[in-house]
Amino acid sequence: MNQPSQVPTVPIFGIPVSRWGMTDTVQYLSGLIQSGERRPHQIITANPIMVMTALQDPAYMDVMRGADLLVPDGTGVVWAADKAGSPVKERVAGFDLLHELMKVGEDYHWKVYLLGSTSEVIQATAERLHLQYPGIQISGFRDGYFSQEQDADVIAAIREAEPDILFVARAVDTQEPWIARYKEQLGVPVMMGVGGSFDVISGKSKRAPKLFQQLRAEWLYRLLKEPTRAKRMLALPKFVAKVLRDKENLTKPR
Question: Which EC numbers characterise this protein's activity in its record (predicted)?
């Protein structure tokens, strides 16, 4: 596990999830960038679907455990930490973390690279973020539809742009593994998968209304809007059942 000792964590089935809230998380990541060391760090926004995938796929578990920081994005992860008797301070949603980093970065004129989604969505995302955070330099962007044979060209473009932050929005089964595979080559201080955040920022889709967020039911809103997600969402009740069934082993080393 690469998470530094100063990060308080709670192990959820062997995956060390940060107990920090948003403020401490942003402060820590800002410090990594401002240090000037350029050492690469992978940030993963952990949710129950990712945890269940890791339990079924050893390679994905290695990716999760090898991350430099795992924040409690999914409300199910927050709930599981409570059940483990080691609660996290609050949910740290990846969408919100992206925006908080952009806010802080304005003061330092950080450079940000955007990778993923479609050409139309990524261009609209870049334009909207530039308008919203004019102090940030969007140092580059490209869509996420490229083959493994094109990885070297994509990495070269990112390295040439020298961003302080790399946000990646690709398919759930490739997003984190891709960052983990090329983390050292990319050499970006903070790299984070952001899922469907670009779709929301670009205006292609809407984030769940405040009521759903307050009820910790953003997953339900997404399911209602996109019924095709039903199969993937089956991991949620399985996660709940596993936490309740294996409560005594929830935080034991694996």
Answer: 2.4.1.187
